[in-house]
Amino acid sequence: MSGSIPKGAFLLPLTLFLIVLLLPLFRNFIQSSPKTYASNLETKETRRCNIFSGNWVPYPKEPYYNNETCPFILDQINCIKNGRPDRDFLKLRWKPHHCELPLFDATQFLELVRGKSMAFVGDSMGRNQLESLLCLINTVAHPEDITEKYTSNDNIFFRWWFVPDYNFTVTTMWSPFLVKFNDSDPTGRGFYSATKLYLEEADEAWRSKIKDFDFVVFSTGQWFFRPLTFYEKGQVVGCQKCENSTELNYYGYKKAFQTAFRTIRKLEGFKGLAFLVTHSPEHFENGAWNEGGTCNRTKPFEEKGVYENGDIVEALHQIQVEEFNAAREKGLRFGLIDITDAMGMRADAHPGRFRLGGNNNNNLNVNDCVHWCSPGAVDTWNEFLLYLMKLEAEIQHKHKGNML
């Protein structure tokens, strides 16, 4: 009949009404998907408290371990054994502004990693943190060196330990640039000769071994101050400290982290949790490392970023955080261990002249103002690590509960 209302006339308003009604439910479902839960180590607690923003406060208790109770401290960073007379650098603890950072609980850590494996990938900063972790674990269960099962026992760059009581394996994998590199000096000691970086290729030293690990901790940055030549698709695309220039070129630094994070994100079979330890500041004063520079302070700075080259450290830190965020947004299960501000204040916590066998360079005693005394401020890195691991465990537990 003319003038009657078509049957389909009611369908459009009804459809729009249902869309408006169901859209919030659909959005909530997407936001609580496993991928989102897994890739963001964030809870109400982390949103309320930034554990990486704080100050160093007096802490009168003894450190977790010492050079007599822990056999895993590399002589180079065993400051007390090497004659450092003061102890004030051991009497400080990191205090976030708006909450408490729990002490490291070795038993709790070992329960979280029971039956699992962890790899520290990068340069000697990763080794520094790993040795701290071994000492912390050793207060509860003794790690056994099993390196000979995987490589030659005299290979200091690749080491493996096993904790039988918890079936936990931990290793360090030397990869100072994270990408493939070719050093003109095979010993890696040629600081003045340019190293070739192949920015699109992850270093096989870690890429080929990492698939089955449950936790992977990336920690590197110190070697990016050297003369470098950057390659992409077989062609030179840039360089650093070349052609009479002393300037840093951040392009290679940024691309190296991009490649590393892309590689582990796309690595077939990898289902683990990755962490990025941000750049660890050095504190040379009165000259560079090869110009008689020292780090003789016995008190920390009261503010962040007041040390020499703080602007460079800030630029490196910003690049790392940007690449971390980009990788996490693409689905990588990723946690950020942001040590930069905290360690930037700790000019007092390096070995300095109290290192084993200070190498001579043009009759100058080379101070170590890069690595960190152990025990000391470096133990805080593992307090951060355990804190984030507990958050991830809580998130996974809540998500499983929601799925039931």
UniProtKB/TrEMBL annotation:
Location of the Trichome birefringence-like N-terminal domain: 48-100
Domain of life: Eukaryota
MF GO annotations: O-acetyltransferase activity
The keyword Transmembrane is assigned to this record: yes
InterPro entries: TBL (IPR029962), TBL_C (IPR026057), TBL_N (IPR025846)
Trichome birefringence-like C-terminal domain: residues covered: 101-386
Record-level GO cellular component terms: Golgi apparatus; membrane
Signal peptide start and end residues: 1-32
Name of the protein in question: Protein trichome birefringence-like 21
Annotated source species: Glycine soja
